[in-house]
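Standup notes, structure subgroup. Blocker cleared on the zinc ion input:
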Amino acid sequence: MSTKNKRDPTICTDPIDATVLADYWLAGLPASEEEAVEEHLLSCDSCGSRLREVIALAEGIRQIAREGSLRMIVSEEFLKRAAEEGLRVRQYAPPAGGKVDCTVTAEDDFLIGRLAANLSGAKRVDLAICDERGVEQIRLPDIPANPDATSVVYQESITYAKGAPTSKIIARLITIDEAGAEHVLGEYTFNHTRTIPGPAARS
Ligand SMILES: [Zn+2]
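Run returned:
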């Protein structure tokens, strides 16, 4: 390191954004950006300690997610670990514009929808969960979407799914361009059949 670059490592003049640190930790950054973050962290204690805070937070969220009750985007790594821990992952992978028949059983720990999409060039991606008429019910804004990935791995709340009635759910991946206009990346229909007996949580 040259004298010119010598600085107090506890003070950062160009702190890495917390969301970038989180994506870095979750391996959601493009390779070039990941390298830049890595490089910065090597010499910056300030961002290093912020990364540790982000990790603590992410691990806390993971702990909750381990129960399978959150609607969220998960990583391949997460699914791999869940399987290694002996948890039962039920997975459906409808093609873009396609549909799939699905259900959930009492033994399942995770319910995953693998949404195939071309994510390259998408700056921001939202996931909308819609009812059978396509009317949006819930939106997960700005989900982690690796531009190199060929799908988004969506975890439906297993707690909700286990109590859900037989119904049709439409998921929609939406990208938002610089001008704020929305473009549908893909639409996926889940024809859910209730196989667990008992009263429906909602109809
Ligand atoms: Zn820094």
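Discussed briefly. The chain is about 30% helix and 25% strand.
Next: hand off to the docking folks.
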